[in-house]
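User: What would this chain look like folded?
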Amino acid sequence: TILYGMKVEAILDRQSDNVSLDHLSRLLVDVHQDSSKIMNDLLSGYQRSLLEMIFMNDSQARGKYNMIIADAIDPKLPAEKYLDRDDNENELKQIIGDIIDAHDVGEDDVLMLGRDGLLMAGPNSKMFEQILLFYLSLLCRELFIRNFFVRTFVLDDTLKKIRALIQSYETDPNNIARIRVSLNQASKDIILLKETLSYLEESLRDMGKPDLPREPRSKHLYEILNCSGMHNDVSMRVLDLGKLVDGLQHELANLSAITDVINTKQLEDVFKGVESNTKFLVDASSANERASASLEVMQVVLAGSFAFDIVDRISGGTLNTDPPEWVITYIKEPLIDPPGIWFAINIGWLLLLCYLLIRLMRYLQAKGAGFLTMRVRLNKPVNVELMETLLSTRDVEVMDAAHEPGVSLKKCFWQEVDKEKWRGPPPKLEVLYDSRYNFVLQLTVTVDKKANPCSEQELVDIFLRDLVEAGAMEEEVAFGAEGASEK
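Assistant: Here's the prediction, encoded as structure tokens.
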């Protein structure tokens, strides 16, 4: 228990022997606020996190209990006279809240118990300080336990909302993300609750209980406050809190298991979709292969038709005119009139043209083969503004962006043009970067390895060198300490 103690010498123009309850109530408000600020500086970050969790991020306004010990009270009346539902009781409410009970302790001292504090007034009041401090310590623990109970009820309501989200996760695609965030926060809160509860149990176990006083007035006060019974009640409530926290933990484990089932179902759906897409791609590839063979045959057939059309056009084709004299002299008489020669020439011409066509197709296929597509995960910090300035000097063909809560990804695709820098045919580059957290994540390089002698690492180094020269990346980040010195 943390106690803030102070002795009031004077408030405004009132000395300590004539303090006004109006002034004292305002002083207590200031003490409550200032003590919270002071303790916030003295507590560790972990202790502050416990308080913020229990009081739901409003620990600065947490309740405190006032214990006021005075040498006298004016007017001095029997205890029951202060419970008059009139001026006396209303004045006392300013400092101790709603009055629960009042007792005479001997002939000269009076004790008043309120919801927010207690007042012990009389010439012998300091003699009861040890008993009052023990009672105050128990009362502060009970006040904390009340807030602990409220926090468990709030957490239980949160778990109920999570269960409702789980049952209706299909109605909103964002429910899964909400469930994960809520489960994560609930798990964190339960861990802190269990730790706080263990500290509370240790506090009660190590708390020394004073023996029953022998002095009659102290004994009477001890019985009025029921310190022994209150200690037992607080201990029992701590046990009840343990049961509540265990129940919350089991409920959280149950919800986590249900969420795992949902995640497994979604993963199965993804696998089924991948399997279906793969089967579709295999079928499409087979159909494409069959169509490719048929297309090649059709190309040969069309080449034959083209070859015969060329022969027909030598003599004028279908112009409906008589063939020229040179056609009769040099083609018809020596080649067409003898049997079989013109047919053999046509077939030979057909075979030659088809052979040339097939060679051309093989050349084009070979030219399109031998390309390397390389994906490299970089995960290096980068100045996004300077990198985008560098990209503005390139002819970017495609640019994609994906913005989600906590994620802002961009992807750019362009064709390099500097053959000297890339030591051959320049590659096509695709870079993926995070514009929110300033990281370049992945680089994809597509290059003709038949004509470009650069190795895979050299291709990546050339791109990183461009970033370093543009000032978008530190040289040590790009190549490491040793690599930077070598470069």
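The chain has a mean pLDDT of 85. If you want, I can go into more detail on any region.
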